Amino acid sequence: MLVQISSGFRSNEEQAYIYGQGRPSYTWNNKKYGSSGSIVSKAKPGTSVHNYGLAIDYFLVSDDGNQSLWTVNDKWKRVGAIAKSMGFEWGGDWTSFRDYPHLQFTKGLSIAQLKAGKRPTFPRGKILHKLELLV
Prior knowledge:
By secondary structure, the chain is of the alpha+beta class. It has 4 helices and 7 strands; from the N terminus they run E-H-E-E-E-E-H-E-E-H-H. The radius of gyration is 16 Å and the shape is globular.
C-alpha cells in the first residue's frame, strides 16, 4: 500500500481558503475566501487540528506510483486502522462529517486546549517502530 500525505500544518489563511470552498460569500479578516463548489471542511480558521500541526490528510497511490486513488475501499480503512493503532484519530470514523483522508493526533485535547497552548505527548519510538513494521 502506497500512501502520500497531501496536507499537514495549515495556517489560518490556508484554512480560510479551505473553509471557503462551497461558501461563495465567506470572508475572514475582511478578505474574501469564498468560492463555489462543494463544502470540504466544517472547520473555520483556528478551529482545525491542522492549524496546530497535529493533523494530516492522505490519499492512496497506485502500485506504479503514477495515479492518486481517492476511492475509499478496504485499503483506505486499513490505513485508518494502522493509524488508530498508533494513537491517531481517523476521520473515517466520524459520524457527522466523514473525512476519510484525515488523521489527527490530539490524545483527547480539545480545540480550546490547543488554542491555550497544550499539546499531546508523543510516545517516543513507538510510532516509528510500527511504521517500520509496515515497510
